[in-house]
Write a structure and sequence with these properties.
Number of domains: 1
Bound molecules: tetrahydrodeoxyuridine
Largest sheet: 5 strands, mixed
Strand order of the largest sheet: 2-1-3-4-5
Helix content: 25-40%
CATH topology: Cytidine Deaminase, domain 2
CATH superfamily: Cytidine Deaminase, domain 2
Radius of gyration: 14 Å
Number of helices: 4
């Protein structure tokens, strides 16, 4: 059963949008294609794919692309994100968990107790985590007060 808050249809929709976004990944160096679909609390979906650079450090993960697209359009209230990743041309076999930098960016904009991260591998049922589970004891804006 999905955790409270997200219906099975919403989870399916976010995963299918993430899968579509993944096809647009620009990842010629790693060959690892990632797609993300971010759901705002108002019901909009922003997608992202990973974008790499020959110089490496400018590379941006799919999750951050989706979040930055949304923030740049005035959205700052997020409910959930679905992430799908794997080698180009291969069937998705494992879940692709967000990197530490992306988790930190999520903490910047999302409630750690509410925001849900949907991860899906091949046959397994999607796993859903609260941000706090993936970034325990995170350092956020409140820590500066
Ligand atoms: N990547 C993502 O886009 N999201 C993740 O959750 C993990 C990693 C990207 C970054 C890089 O382009 C490639 O996957 C290999 O690390």
């Amino acid at each position: 059963m999905p955790k409270e808050g997200l219906t099975a249809d919403t989870i399916e929709l976010l995963l299918s949008e993430a899968k579509k976004a993944r096809e647009l990944a620009y990842a010629p160096y790693s060959g690892f294609y990632v797609g993300a679909a971010l759901l705002t609390k108002s019901g909009k979906i922003y997608t992202g794919c990973n974008i790499e650079s020959a110089a490496q450090t400018p590379t941006c993960c799919a999750e951050r692309v989706a979040i930055f697209k949304a923030v740049s359009e005035g959205e700052k209230n997020f409910a959930a994100i679905a992430v799908i990743g794997g080698k180009k041309g291969e069937e998705i076999s494992r879940i692709c968990a967000p990197c530490g930098v992306c988790r930190q960016v999520m903490l910047e904009f999302c409630d750690e107790n509410e925001f849900e991260i949907i991860l899906s591998g091949r046959k397994e049922k999607a796993k859903i985590f609260k941000l706090k589970e993936l970034l325990p004891l995170g350092f956020g804006a409140d820590d500066l007060n």
